[in-house]
Amino acid sequence: MRFLSVNADSFLIELASLDETLALYSRLQNVALQGISDLIPAAKTILVFFNEIETNMATLIRQISTLEISSLLEQNAEEVIIPIRYDGGDLAQVAELQGLSVADLILKHRQSTWNVAFIGFAPGFAYMSSPDHPFTDIPRLQVPRKKIPAGSLGLAGKYSGIYPKDSPGGWQLIGTTSEQMWDLQRENPALLRPGMTVHFEDVTHHPVMIDVPKAISKDISTTENTPKKALFKITAPSLQMTIQDEGRFNQTNIGVGTAGAMDLGALHRANRIVGNPKDSAVIEILNGGLKAKMQDSAVIAVAGAIGNIHVKFADGQKADFSNEQAIALDTGDEFHIQSPSQGLRQYLAVRGGIQVEAVLNSYSFDSLAVLGPEPLKIGDVIYQADLDLGNIQIYETPITHLPSVGDTVELDIVMGPRTDWFDDASLNLLCEQAWLVTNESNRVGLRLSGLQALSRSITHELESEGTSIGALQIPPSGQPVLFMNDHPLTGGYPVIASVAKHHWDLVAQIPAGCYIKFNKIKDFEKIENGQ
């Protein structure tokens, strides 16, 4: 067991096998050590997040190192039976690769016990492994399919997996199921979660039953989201307008990440200015451009990237307001959040809050998982929520400087967890070289480009492991990708270091065309067996 540093509030546990990983994950869930806030299991690792106020890495390492774990999973794991029609297009090909007949391949697959190891790739996509080891590693397709239908059962490596929704993929398809792997209407949207035991039932030759959905009667007058007051209508869009709050927490066991406002400080300031609870939903605006016409009176505030808000009042008068202040508007007034002179993302808060439906306890849109309220568009009307309000703040201290195109931004980094996969020259180059933020950057991550690429000293494939906001993942190109709020929960490329938490808000405000210099503030820590 090795412990590898990740960030101030996280570290990676590396184990010898998938079975050992599953056993430790089960044990950690049962003992509930103080301060652990989340766990992301993967092939041979567990990413541990903790509350820095309640505990620290050294304490948790000592506690985890003393745990007794069996190579066998707990016997009280929840069991699920999934009906499968073994009719996949790659069935014959996989059977040939395994030196089996199609019938024997099906028999071995359905007679094996499968355990949900971890969730990755997409919400509800469970990587299932079998302690029976029925097959040798199965290669992925050389050319991935552009679209695999939801419910398709595939094999790759040592895993079985069922696609929860239509998506591209390279797994070898051997069957289909009519079970819904992902359904937001269920109490637990993901049918399969880490630690579960799965058995497959062969229904290939059974009649296919079609469920007819029952009509659901709903009294709209009693629903939580009945419109209360129309505030404004969007008349011109920005490049991207999404609803965001602080994000989703404790949903990684179903494959859902945090998402949330990229610049949390700006989210909090905008809400404080208008008197909302600081974690209330706001509109995150990429590079300005949003125009709207008031449908009623309201108080708004814009925080984050530095720029002007141009207002045309209903009586014909005009005025410009700086951001980070309360702006009172009446019916018929129009406002235009102009492109910022510094920074990239602006946050629009409305006194009383924005009425929107929560998805998994958050109002945030996740661009990778395509989860949460849909991005806003021209013609959309924003309605007021009914929040408990405080006083409007007129003394909020604004941010006075943010990056502009061409600037060089310095970011602090913590080394790990895969620092030792890179040679000394690359470790030096990471901090000595300036990295261009390319146009291929979004809420998932910033793609960086340097004159010299980084080189790995360990070149074999890295099995999927948990990742976090701020991670600097190094793909085969040697050009880093800086993961941000909508990043995938697991990744298969080594992470050389992570941007320190105190600079995450700054990363959200770095436009393409800027350069980044990394400043190492903490060396890589590697601890064997807690020693």
UniProtKB/TrEMBL annotation:
Gene3D superfamilies (UniProt xref): 3.30.1360.40, Cyclophilin-like
Q: Where are the transmembrane segments?
A: none
Could you list this entry's UniProt keywords, alphabetically sorted: ATP-binding, Hydrolase, Nucleotide-binding
Q: Name one GO molecular function term.
A: hydrolase activity
Carboxyltransferase domain location is 1-192, 253-531
SUPFAM superfamilies assigned to the protein according to its UniProt record, in alphabetical order: Cyclophilin-like (SSF50891), PH0987 N-terminal domain-like (SSF160467)
Top-level lineage group = Bacteria
Please name one Pfam family that this protein belongs to: CT_A_B
Q: What is the protein named?
A: TIGR00370 family protein
